[in-house]
Write a structure and sequence with these properties.
The complex is a heterodimer of chains A (about 475) and B (about 550).
Chain A: E1 4-6, E2 14-15, H1 22-30, E3 36-41, H2 44-58, E4 65-66, H3 71-76, H4 79-93, E5 97-102, H5 104-108, H6 113-122, E6 130-134, H7 143-158, E7 168-171, H8 177-189, E8 194-197, H9 222-227, E9 233-237, H10 259-267, E10 270-274, H11 279-294, H12 300-320, E11 324-328, H13 331-343, E12 347-352, H14 359-368, E13 374-376, H15 381-391, E14 395-398, H16 403-409, E15 413-415, H17 433-454
Parallel strand pairs in A: 1-13, 3-4, 3-5, 5-6, 7-8, 7-9, 9-10, 11-12, 11-14, 12-13, 14-15
Chain B: H1 14-23, H2 27-34, E1 37-39, H3 66-75, E2 81-86, H4 89-94, E3 118-119, H5 124-129, H6 132-146, E4 150-155, H7 157-162, H8 166-177, E5 180-184, H9 194-208, E6 223-229, H10 235-246, E7 249-255, H11 260-264, E8 271-274, H12 277-291, E9 295-297, H13 303-317, H14 320-348, E10 352-356, H15 361-371, E11 375-380, H16 386-390, H17 402-405, H18 421-432, E12 452-454, H19 459-469, E13 473-476, H20 478-486, E14 491-493, H21 505-520
Parallel strand pairs in B: 2-3, 2-4, 4-5, 6-7, 6-8, 8-9, 10-11, 10-13, 11-12, 13-14
Antiparallel strand pairs in B: 1-12
Helix pairs in contact in B: 3-9, 6-8, 9-12, 13-14, 13-21, 14-21
The chains are: A alpha/beta (about 475), B alpha/beta (about 550).
């Protein structure tokens, strides 16, 4: 097989996209802030679609307001609508923060949201709520870019200089609520004071309530965000983030900045830039960083989890060695997954993302150490399907949208990441750390074993 | 939740409830919202509800946009057209196979493009320099890939703003490729809700697709189109089998399990039956003007409603054989329905339901609940107009506002070739015998006195409604589902059916009864209160005095 990298698609149209739009990502990030109601400044369809998509994965109430653009607003500007929307969100939800995402509509007509907000803040009664704005037209980047844009906007607005507080900041990527809970658990086990941003571990995976809550409890608090400026260090998960030359994103623009960049440059906080901790290598990097920052050793329980993961690799690797897999999703998630799959002996022959950063391919090649895999940057599912039919696959690792390819090829599929809307429990999938990797490993091995068992003439029930 | 249902529960005073509901809003907003909330009196024909008006910004609505109504609802279920969404990626992605409308190509070789989501995936530079070139190339892509019978193009918000002329592009490519290519100016901001998108879709299908094929012979002796049935969960499949058994030929369904090919000769029928009045009545009316085809309203949700609707179709044709077959079908099917109803009804009757969905479902599903002895105590539509609430008689009184004016009203004239005078005469003869045509009575006359009718219900309103009325089941969509369930009330999705269905026809009634048993007789809700919750909070000994 020839080494191939496809950055420019032979097709102009995107057929079955492998990315969502930026306001979805920013709204999800805003859901990870305590007392925050997200608001999308655009047509009501934007907020309705984003809500229905998030809800179908997280299976939780997701309230996202809209400024409900009309034809008039597109001509005369959306300021009036935005202000009215803010009024109504405040009276109904009493939020501490309103997280505003702009859309292709409001960005194209050039609504100056910052100045609208400045005016709005000056009206008496409005000063007690904070307003954050992420510029997220969907013709710039993907939902992952929107997610990081929102985090950067939060850090930019809230981080303050002050006395050192010894905290470690964790800047999360598009992770599951279970992943975020895991990160918190690790920090507690390490006895390291920390700030996690965003933290939708509770808001997007609530227990059943005795009483309905308009804004679910949990999330990063305003105080915590302020403290980020005086933190001892930060760990930023992911290497692509919203950096690199993104399709459409104006290069060199001040918007293309990650939250970590801001903490590093403006607040001189020491930064650790590491991949998502999936697999031994990536998790080691995470725990090394924690050890460096804290000067402490790993708690025995975590060391044992590492040991169990290795033990599992030893027991199970023979079932999956050399199996050909296709993996896809957001750039940073896929980079980490690819490292993990390579580590366990699976051959990731097709590695795809809908994002278009040039960094993606470079990082993937570093992880796989081979030029032989197909790396699709800015790829869509039809491209993946074409290669999959050509190459032949044993396994698909990715979110629900690729199911039709697994179905066509008659191969197993392991659901990971976002969105998982054809199964229960997508929000509770744990991918991170030695523990998450172990769960992923077992799931993958068992998917391959089940395929073999289902198709065996005997149907052995003993290995 | 379940245990206390056997007793008739206390129902709050609806007027007081309404007052409390409005208190939360700023004065101006409350005044506007008050008009969209009615305490029903089925006998009072003077009641007027405010509907199809813009949602107030910042009030979390369940409504979608114009594009959603046009692409997602009307064109989505048609399998032999490649739908290209012209715009940034989100709009196309979110409408990709999410409505669960099914389709069944006769053979594996027949085209089915429903599993595909095409987008021009507009980027920065396209917004600045225009996207017409990209659209042309995307149409060419679709042609090269599939050689489809037709291609449809949908404009999203930024396209309207940057002024791409999608219709010119469509004309150009149509001439070049020799297939039917048509565009919809369904930018999301255009209307009040998805309803505007339905109208835009109706107009274009009527002007560019229906009746363009005059070559085909008549499809059968008794031929109909079914309108406003979208085959969610296989609803249409159930109904198709009934028509076949009755000896009635179904030419085209708008748009469940449908093809553009069938639309092209859909003018050659004897009757249009209308299921979802809101989304499709425009085509039915225009076809009557142009071709003389009469239409009447039907409802296939509920066993009795299905029987009634099938009978009306048979009576319309007045053919002895069709009528006999229809009666045999109804008798047989009602027998199986009865068996299940007898099992489920005693378990669930006396319970209460609420439904806030769609432009007709909130009305139609009340039938199914009634058959189980469950009363609908509050209902409303997401995107309907006054006529769907109050009946078509109010149409002349509906104010035309700026939003309605946004959408073109087509000028329709009699078709010189295909107009059928015979159908006009047939309709007149039947009308003389009190057979009702082109009418829809709406939801309100069928709801009980003092039930609540709420248009475009907001999150806050449904929460208070649940708190005060404590219904046993709430019907809506995915966006409301977990809000309602967090309140301890089961929610049945009537958009996507929660992977269930079909719920239309007799088989649908059976499925729905069984589903109600599953949902209303479960013990899950009893586990909500943890055993330690009612234990005393203070620890220590109590000294008796």
């Amino acid at each position: 097989m020839d080494a191939k990298v496809i950055n420019k698609t032979p097709f102009v149209s995107t057929r079955n996209a492998c990315k969502m739009c930026a306001p979805l990502g920013s709204s999800l990030a805003f859901k990870g802030v305590e007392g925050c109601t997200p608001l999308i400044h655009g047509s009501q369809g934007c907020s309705t679609y984003v809500r229905r998509y998030l809800i179908s994965h997280f299976k939780e109430p997701v309230d996202i307001a809209s400024s409900n653009f009309t034809q008039e607003a597109t001509i005369f500007g959306g300021g009036t609508n935005l202000k009215l929307a803010l009024d109504n969100v405040k009276s109904q939800y009493k939020p501490k923060i309103i997280g505003i995402s702009t859309t292709c509509l409001s960005e194209t007509i050039g609504d100056d949201v910052s100045s609208i907000l400045m005016d709005y803040r000056e009206i008496p009664g409005n000063e007690n709520t904070a307003y954050v704005h992420a510029q997220t037209p969907s013709y710039q980047g993907s939902h992952a870019d929107g997610f990081h844009e929102a985090i950067a906007a939060l850090v930019k607005q809230f981080a303050r200089r002050g006395e050192a507080n010894g905290k470690t900041v964790l800047l999360g990527g598009l992770m599951s609520p279970a992943d975020l809970r895991y990160l918190k658990e690790v920090m507690q086990a390490m006895q390291m004071p920390f700030v996690l941003l965003p933290d939708y571990s509770e808001t997007m995976d609530n227990p059943h309530w005795d009483e309905y809550k308009l804004i679910p409890e949990g999330g990063t608090t305003m105080e915590e965000m302020e403290e980020m400026g005086n933190a001892r260090a930060f760990i930023q998960f992911g290497e692509v983030l919203n950096k690199g030359r993104l399709a459409g994103r104006v290069s060199g623009s001040h918007h293309v900045v990650s939250a970590g960049d801001i903490l590093q440059k403006e607040f001189s906080v020491t930064g650790y830039h590491i991949p998502f901790p999936i697999g031994i290598d990536n998790s080691d990097l995470f725990f090394d960083a924690l050890k460096n920052i804290s000067g402490k050793e790993l708690p025995a329980e975590i060391a044992k989890e590492r040991g169990r993961l290795i033990d599992a690799y030893v027991d199970g690797h023979k079932y999956i060695f050399g199996k050909k897999a296709m993996v896809y999703g957001e750039e940073d998630f896929v980079i980490a997954l690819t490292g993990f799959l390579t580590e366990i002996g699976i051959d990731p022959v097709i590695i795809a993302t809908g994002g278009e950063s040039k960094l993606f391919e470079q990082r993937i090649r570093e992880k796989t150490g081979t030029e032989n895999s197909i790396v699709l940057s800015g790829g869509d599912f039809e491209q993946m399907a074409e290669y999959a039919r050509q190459i032949g696959l044993d396994l698909i690792v990715g979110h629900s949208k690729g199911y039709y390819i697994a179905r066509e090829l008659g191969i197993p599929m392991v659901r990971v990441g976002f969105p998982v809307h054809d199964r229960e429990g997508g929000q509770r999938l744990l991918h991170l750390g030695y523990r998450g990797s172990n769960q992923l490993f077992d799931t993958i091995v068992n998917a391959v074993i089940q395929q073999k068992q289902d198709n065996s003439p005997v149907g052995y029930k003993y290995m | 939740m379940i245990s206390k249902n056997k007793n008739k529960k206390h129902v709050p005073n609806p007027e007081e409830f309404k007052e409390e509901l409005l208190k939360k809003y700023p004065l101006k907003v409350a005044k506007k919202r008050a008009k969209g909330i009615l305490v029903n009196d089925p006998k009072d024909t003077g009641m007027e509800i405010q509907a199809n008006v813009r949602t107030i910004p910042g009030i979390i609505t369940q409504r979608g946009c114009t594009y959603a109504g046009c692409k997602g609802v009307i064109l989505g279920p048609t399998r032999d057209v490649v739908n290209i969404v012209h715009g940034p990626i989100g709009c196309s992605f979110y409408a990709w196979l999410t409505r669960r409308n099914q389709t069944k190509p006769p053979t594996a070789q027949d085209p089915n493009y429903i599993p595909y989501s095409f987008s021009t995936d507009m980027q920065d530079s396209n917004i600045v320099f225009g996207g017409e070139k990209k659209l042309k190339d995307a149409i060419q892509d679709a042609w090269d890939l599939f050689k489809p019978r037709s291609i449809a193009v949908f404009s999203t918000c930024p396209i309207g703003l940057i002024g791409d002329d999608i219709h010119a592009v469509c004309r150009e490519k149509k001439a070049e490729l020799g297939i039917n290519i048509f565009g919809f100016s369904c930018e999301g901001y255009k209307g009040v809700s998805q309803s505007a998108g339905h109208h835009i879709a109706n107009n274009k299908i009527f002007s560019d697709v229906i009746g363009i094929d005059l070559t085909l012979p008549r499809a059968g002796k008794f031929v109909i189109n079914m309108m406003g049935e979208y085959n969610i969960g296989g609803d249409s499949f159930a109904l198709e089998s009934y028509f076949e058994e009755m000896g009635v030929t179904l030419k085209a369904t708008f748009s469940g399990n449908s093809t553009i090919e069938s639309y092209e000769s859909a003018h050659d029928v004897d009757l249009n039956i209308v299921m979802c009045h809101r989304s499709i009545n425009y085509i039915a009316e225009m076809m009557e003007k142009k071709y003389g085809i009469p239409w009447f309203k039907v409802n296939f949700i509920g066993a009795q409603a299905t029987a009634k609707s099938l009978r009306r179709i048979a009576e319309y044709f007045g053919d002895e054989e069709v009528m006999a077959k229809t009666e045999a079908l109804i008798a047989r099917e009602l027998e199986s329905v009865k068996a299940v109803a007898n099992k489920v009804k005693p378990l669930v009757q006396g319970k209460t339901a609420m439904m806030f969905v769609g432009g007709s479902r909130a009305h139609h599903y009340q039938e199914l609940f009634r058959e189980l002895g469950i009363e609908t105590i509050a209902a409303g539509y997401e995107f309907a107009h006054r006529d769907d609430y109050e009946g078509r008689r109010v149409i002349p009184d509906i104010k035309i506002d700026a939003d309605s004016r946004n959408i073109e009203e087509l000028k329709v004239v009699k078709d010189k070739v295909s107009f059928k005078d015979s159908l006009v005469e047939k309709k007149k003869a039947l009308k003389d015998k009190n057979f009702e045509f082109e009418n829809y009575e709406g939801m309100m006359p069928e709801m009980s006195k003092n039930s609540l009718v709420i248009d475009d219900i907001s999150h806050w309103e449904s929460e208070l409604l649940i708190e005060k009325y404590k219904p046993d089941i709430f019907c809506a969509g995915i966006k409301e589902k977990y809000v309602v369930q967090k309140n301890g009330i089961p929610l049945k999705q009537l958009h996507s059916y929660d992977y269930g269905g079909p719920y239309a026809g007799f088989v649908g009634a059976i499925n729905f009864y069984n589903e109600m048993e599953r949902m209303l007789c479960t013990d899950i809700w009893k586990m909500i209160d943890a055993p330690w919750k009612n234990e005393p909070v203070c620890v220590g000994s109590v000294v008796e005095e």
